[in-house]
Design a protein that fits this description.
The chain has eleven helices and no strands. The chain is mainly alpha-helical.
């Protein structure tokens, strides 16, 4: 069943409502990728999918609740993609590069991640926030298990790595959300400054330091 058909059908049963909700999310994610976070409008989304705005709010009480749902989906999706790229006994650098490249390749995950705590989570109901946190806890466990094998770390060390990588990813990629200066003529000192803060090398360099620091700290406690 196409998303348009699922949306336009009158939803009576729980199954039909679930189908419509998934269809709304599918269109919403495409729309988010087209216009970005700031320009995303619930009114325009409703118009885009042929629903009354009030009907849209039956499924998501706020714009942020919709974003939170898209974030949860993207977190699970990215986690599986990242896991598929991992292998046993990876170097810290290879692990970090894989994490950054897979996260960046998912057009929804990083833009929502960097706005999660400061914007999105402030306008959702507490039960919905709790359920999202439970999704996060589960994904940390899943990622920590494969990280432990890939980096030859204990489970506790792997959990620390996974949590820290999330914080580092937010910090390293925030600059990517600003205006693009790729085609502008810039003074050499400004260009050098931008290059020095390029998100990928910044992330990978510091991720390796963190992983090796966690590993060394464990060795010093033996």
């Amino acid at each position: 069943m196409s998303s348009v058909v699922a949306i336009n059908q009158r939803a009576r049963s729980l199954e039909q409502k679930a189908l419509r909700r998934r269809a709304v999310l599918q269109v919403a994610e495409t729309y988010l990728l087209e216009v970005g976070y700031e320009a995303f409008s619930m009114s325009k989304l409703a118009k885009k999918i042929g629903l009354a705005k009030g009907t849209l709010y039956l499924y998501f009480q706020t714009r942020e609740e919709l974003f939170l749902t898209l974030y949860d989906q993207s977190l699970i999706r990215w986690s599986q993609t990242f896991i598929d790229e991992l292998s046993d006994s990876m170097t810290s650098k290879a692990y970090s590069q894989n994490l950054f490249s897979t996260a960046s390749a998912d057009g929804t995950f990083v833009p929502l991640l960097i706005r999660l705590e400061h914007m999105i989570e402030h306008n959702v109901a507490i039960p919905r926030l709790i359920s999202s946190k439970q999704v996060f806890i589960n994904q940390v466990e899943v990622l920590a298990e494969v990280t432990s094998n890939s980096l030859r770390l204990s489970k506790a060390q792997a959990i620390e790595v996974v949590k820290t990588m999330g914080v580092l990813l937010i910090g390293a990629t925030q600059g990517d959300q600003g205006p693009s200066l790729d085609h502008e003529e810039l003074p050499e000192d400004v260009q050098n400054l931008i290059v020095s803060f390029s998100s990928e090398p910044l992330f990978v360099k510091n991720a390796v330091r963190i992983i090796e620091g966690i590993r060394a700290e464990a060795g010093s406690n033996i």
